[in-house]
Amino acid sequence: MRVSKEKLHELIKNKLNKAGLTVEHADGIADVLVHADARGIHSHGAMRVEYYAERIAKGGINANPHFQFEKTGPSTATFDGDNGAGHVAAKQAMDEAIKMAKENGVGVVGVKRISHSGALSYFVKQASEQGLVGISVCQSDPMVVPYGGAEPYYGTNPIAFSAPGENDDLITFDMATTVQAWGKILHARSKNETIPETWAVDHNGEPTTNPFDVSALLPIAGPKGYGLMMMVDVLSGVLLGLPFGKNVSSMYHDLEKGRELGQLHIVINPAFFTDIDMFKQNISQTMKELNAIKPAPGFDQVYYPGQRSAERERRYNENGIDIVDDIYDYLVSDTIHNNAYDHKDPFAK
Length: 349
Ligand code: NAI
Fold this sequence. Notes:
Blueprint: E1 2-3, H1 5-19, H2 23-38, H3 49-58, E2 68-71, E3 76-80, H4 86-104, E4 106-114, H5 121-128, E5 133-138, E6 159-164, E7 170-175, H6 182-191, E8 200-201, E9 216-217, H7 223-236, E10 261-268, H8 276-291, H9 307-319, E11 321-322, H10 325-332
Parallel strand pairs: 3-4
Antiparallel strand pairs: 1-11, 2-3, 4-10, 5-6, 5-10, 6-7, 8-9
Bound molecules: 1,4-dihydronicotinamide adenine dinucleotide (NAI).
1,4-dihydronicotinamide adenine dinucleotide (NAI) binds at residues 41, 43-44, 116-121, 138, 140, 156, 158, 160, 173-176, 181, 303, 305-306, 308-309.
């Protein structure tokens, strides 16, 4: 099903509002989800609405949170989200980091006690669209073995970065620190397909090609991705005095409880380090030089990070967004949720 961005936004907003969120917060989540779908990150788009609706209805996303912004230094602050909509808290916290970076060269905001906040590219683009460099990291539920381990400890702990070039140029990088998202394993299960042995392990910590035997995901690049996951967990968990490592709450468990997740935004104002016009020119030059690199056999061209998502977004803005029929049917139905998400084992078959 193909729908316009505006229509998709409206459907998501209405569903979340019916689940119990205020119109303002439902609107804020819809913004981030439509951003994800428009960039082709369907794992973090409309597909999540039913899960959020169930968690809102059961009380695990606070429908009337009391957000608290507290400045802790000229360039540092915390933002307590009171377990309300993570997307909305993370967006407001990024606005505060941007203000501090404009004034003082850098702005760092620790976003505390939030629910899932979606695709991080949304937040780092808030900064780069204002001529600043944005970095954001956040925790997620434990599903990944530490290098050499047979039990999960960290989450898929994503890292996002965006920097401005000339005019509308932006270079944006946004990734989970796992080889593949859990959604890709579910997809393989649904099609009875095998998975590459680099994606996940079984209960002994052995790589597996059977998606039904998966009991943890693997970090990108072995010990190096594992190190990045640790860094994300320290910056968005330990640093903010929140549960960390294997104590981070599960996405699909205790849906009546707040998730207490953390996220850290870092905004850097290039004008405090170099000539801002030169900075933007050089970012644009980087993008052009990467595109001009000779492609390896089997590749049509080299893309700069985020390029294909940005191109997809432009196409979707004009022609509408492709949404899976079942998700569209749910969005237009009267159903709030189907009690489908509350289960204790994230790897349940
Ligand atoms: P991905 O694997 O689709 O892309 C990762 C990065 O690689 C992107 O920056 C993309 O632009 C770049 N890329 C992909 N193909 C490329 C190519 N051919 N040339 C150049 N660059 C290329 O992303 P992933 O890891 O599946 O993450 C998806 C989303 O999930 C992200 O938005 C992330 O923030 C979100 N996420 C959110 C979590 C949360 O708890 N809030 C947890 C984990 C992920």
